[in-house]
Amino acid sequence: MSATQAMRSALAAVLGELAISSPDLVGMSADGRLIFRDFIGNAPSRHVDVGISEATLIGAASGIARCGRRVVVSAIASFLLRRAYEQIVIDVGFDRLPVTLIGVGGGLAYGPLGPTHHIADDVALMRLIPGMAVFVPADAVAAADALRLATALPGPSYIRIGSGEDALLAPTAGSAGTAPRMILDGADLAIVASGVCVHEAVAAAAALAGQGLGARVIDVMCLQPWPADEVAALLLPGRPVIAVEEHVREGGLGALVQETLADPGNGRFARLAVGPGSSPIASRQELLAFHGVDRAAIAGAARRLVGETAGLPTLQVDM
Amino acid sequence: MTGLEPSALEEMARRLRRLVLRQAFGSRAHIGSALSIVDILACLYFSHLEITPQTWPRPDRDRFVLSKGHGALALYAVLHEAGFLPLAMLEAYGTPGCPLGGHPTANLPGIELSTGALGHGLAVAAGMAVAARMNGYASRHVVLMGDGELDEGSVWEAALFAAHQRLGALTAVVDRNGLQQEGPTEAVLALEPLADKWRAFGWRTVAADGHDLADLRAAFAGLEPDAAQPTVIIADTVKGKGVSFMERNPGWHMAALDDRQFALALAELEAHG
């Protein structure tokens, strides 16, 4: 049983360090300062909470960033991005200000709270903003790496984090930091994933291994700028590829992988992504299954792609 | 700073109006919206604030945000007079290759923020005032909004924020010309009682005649950066001020001047001199 850590607490610790090491850094929140607990402890005068006012959050962050400082903003992902999208585009994006946006509970992480709290198009929305770096970390350590990198960038960035605890992943190859990394090695197919779907892919790979199928699981955290060469180098030449994401088909990981493949499609590329529209009220795990981006769906797609015969029993995957 | 003497300020306002008309001639432009803010801008740049090409590189400079970005022609005019933009650039307004758009963009010297979307400037200026306080600067921050712009909810949440943060160094000016694109503000989305609203939001609220330079100067002179509240100056203005056939005429929100109208308008400005 691997260790777990919540991304938010890992980021809280990094923000606490940055409060000391980056005296120009300002932290901003919208009626939710928990992630800034350590930051506030070290630099109380450099934290500002604006209340439930996302437009003010981004606008004021823009104003502060125009005065020689950099800003880390944290709020619930769906409200941060949608409510204040115009502010992000114009007040931050046009002038590529050093503002890092932490979207808490991105994707379907808030599960039973319902569709108003989900955002499965955040990567696409942020990728549409020129100069916006986009990160979807899969565990707390990766999230901490993403925040350290993002707050050193000259321009804006978006980091999607979940809510609650995630298992800590251990890559077999690839450097620590934000480059694409191989979590598990395998020879029969590659599964490219980000965020929570990396965990789903790992679970699918375990099930597939029991059937003698070796799946290589590749974790891609940085989706903009897209590390095309590094991803291509990690794929298995001539072998099938699955891209799976807690994100809609348009504009996310799958779209990027498809662009990267020298030979897209031809029956050897499957994209698993969240369907359009509102999700039903269900837990995050149930929603991942509902949308066909969970471990069972990944394993099913893998068997289809690799050409399992009809005689095999249907794979049962324990959740 | 040593500002212009009152008579010189009058002459400056007249020059600015001339520049607005000269830029506008030859294209469709937000002429009325620019003319209503000329006197306010003359006061800001040549009496109250210190914003020059020399102060521009300094992080502790005074900052002005034209949140009602469609007043751009007036901003370009005052930025020319302040030494930021060459006359040739203004004269090329509306012609291919000219970097001056219908709304100001932050890639140009003297422009703090790309505006035009309405409702953005107050929060950004509040952020600037917050940063100035963190940095220990004595800089002043002024944001000019249209009255129609106050329809945007983002203005009011920023107003809550600025008052809560006790941003005494932040000043909002409302170009209360009573008109928006569709017609009178009170017919589209009634704002009155407007001063009461600002007061209720925790702002020190001052009324001024937006075309009386002495009144405007007095309003700005009364600002105290260490005050516990931000201040809003509700400036009573006339859309199209300075050109008789434009004044209070919603038709001049966005329109073009023909040769005859242009000559007439310039002649009126000379006559008032």
Give a written overview of the molecule.
The complex is a heterodimer of chains A (319) and B (273). Chain A is 36% helix and 21% strand. Chain A is built from twelve helices and 14 strands. In chain A, strand 6, helix 7 and strand 7 form a beta-alpha-beta unit. In chain A, helix 1 packs parallel to helix 7, helix 3 packs parallel to helix 5 and helix 8 packs across helix 12. The longest helix of chain A has 15 residues. The radius of gyration of chain A is 19 Å and the shape is elongated. Chain B is 41% helix and 12% strand. In chain B, strands 1-2-3-7-6 form a five-stranded parallel beta sheet, sandwiched between helices. Chain B has a two-stranded antiparallel ribbon with strand order 4-5. With 273 residues, chain B is an alpha/beta fold. In chain B, helix 1 packs across helix 3, helix 1 packs across helix 4 and helix 3 crosses helix 10. Chain B is built from eleven helices and seven strands. The interface between A and B is medium-sized, with 27 and 30 residues.
